[in-house]
Known about the structure:
By secondary structure, the chain is mostly helical. Helix content is 77%, strand content 0%.
Amino acid sequence: MPPAFAARPAPRLFLRGLLGAAFLSGAASLSYELVWARLLAILFGSGAPAVAVTAAAFLAGIALGAWVASRLAAFIRRSGVRAYGICEAALGASALASFEAFRLAAPPGRAPSVPFDAPAFLPSLAARFVPAVLMGAAFPWALAAARARGGE
Length: 152
């Protein structure tokens, strides 16, 4: 490959910053998962169904998000940092919106449903699935950003 077309080496500072951002994003994602499980325990009246619903939404969303983003990242080479930033911003907005969805599903004074309440279950599952998809998409975009800067 001619030198003019060779990928320029990624500055260590950029890669360290990207690694730090990915670490903080993952820590925030795990925190969201724990908070969602606790909020759903209030909604369902029990911790076991809440953890099961949260884990199902979280893992399915991460798998779908990573699969879609890895396919798209192969086509978008130069704007990996932009795509990662947009993904993280959308993740933050959707995660905050999920708390509003929980508030609407469980208004104040409503007794916990035992053992299962589908009208409360479906919106809470959907509200956790969207941020989880974006959580899964964030890592492939971070890798695309590193690759665009020449880091392998």
